């Protein structure tokens, strides 16, 4: 079945850029998403990208998609302590449940 | 944006109790609702998919008699954990989807269930 893989941990200093990586296996993925989960809370959609796009930028967030390698990344510029959370990559073909990665725990050191 | 409300946010109860969790879409009609379970430091595990007015589709390994799902209207789905035991303690999250939306699922804030 479909699989989404992420590294489990990332630690960065406040003010630096964070890059969270994700790989997926389903070549028919149409939508790719990044969600943020703070402790004890549900999932907050950060951004998404269609499979026919290479890059999307939204304020401090930049998503890069390499469809050939099935690789997705999320770059957070000027990382702040409030960015500390778990970040989930997810993919969908549009008419199936989302498939989530295991999440990357981002720790921001002041 | 679209809002999904999930209640209660936290439940602590004794073993053997049945617990009902509600998931409501506040400003859109949810044709499909999803129930997830999240173990500590783990990803979300899809438990079941429910469509309004029909029986839920359960994922492999999820006991349908243990986790009763009702999707009686386009804005409300409920998950009832029957005769809960300590191993059912977990974080349960619902999400709702409306046809035609770019973002396929809007998530509730989750319910922390603790069975003593």
Q: Low-confidence parts of chain B lasting 5 or more residues at pLDDT below 50?
A: none
Low-confidence stretches of chain A: none
The helical percent of chain B reads under 10%
Tell me the distance between the termini of chain A. Answer: 40 Å
Could you give a short account of the major beta sheet of chain A?
A: 6 strands, mixed
Strand residues, percent of chain B = over 45%
Round the Cα radius of gyration of chain B to an integer and report it.
13 Å
Radius of gyration of chain A: 13 Å
Shape estimate of chain A: globular
What's the multimeric state?
heterodimer
Strands of chain B, total number: 11
Helix content of chain A: under 10%
With helices defined by DSSP (H or I, 4 residues minimum), what is the helix count of chain A? 0
Q: Average pLDDT across residues of chain B?
A: 90
Shape category of chain B: globular
The helix/strand class of chain A is mainly beta
Instruction: Measure the end-to-end span of chain B.
Output: 37 Å
Strand tally of chain A is 11
Instruction: Give the biggest sheet of chain B.
Output: 7 strands, mixed
């Amino acid at each position: 079945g479909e699989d989404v893989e992420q590294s489990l941990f990332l630690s960065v200093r406040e003010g630096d850029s964070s890059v969270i990586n994700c790989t997926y296996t389903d070549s028919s993925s149409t939508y790719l998403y990044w969600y943020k989960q703070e402790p004890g809370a549900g999932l907050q959609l950060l951004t998404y990208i269609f499979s026919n796009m290479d890059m999307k930028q939204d304020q401090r967030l930049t998503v890069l998609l390499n469809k050939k390698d099935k690789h997705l990344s999320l770059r957070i510029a000027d990382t702040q302590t409030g960015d500390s959370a778990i970040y989930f990559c997810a993919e969908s073909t549009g008419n199936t449940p989302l498939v989530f990665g295991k999440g990357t725990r981002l720790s921001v050191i002041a | 944006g679209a809002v999904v409300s999930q209640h209660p946010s936290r439940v602590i109860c004794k073993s053997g109790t049945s617990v009902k969790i509600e998931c409501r879409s506040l400003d859109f009609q949810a044709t499909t609702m999803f129930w997830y379970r999240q173990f500590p430091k783990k990803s979300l595990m899809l438990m079941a998919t429910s469509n309004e007015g029909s029986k839920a589709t359960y994922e492999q390994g999820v006991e349908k008699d243990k986790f009763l799902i009702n999707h009686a209207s386009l804005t409300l789905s409920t998950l009832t954990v029957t005769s809960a035991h300590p191993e059912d303690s977990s974080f349960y999250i619902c999400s709702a989807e409306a046809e035609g939306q770019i973002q396929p699922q809007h998530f509730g804030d989750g319910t922390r269930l603790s069975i003593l």
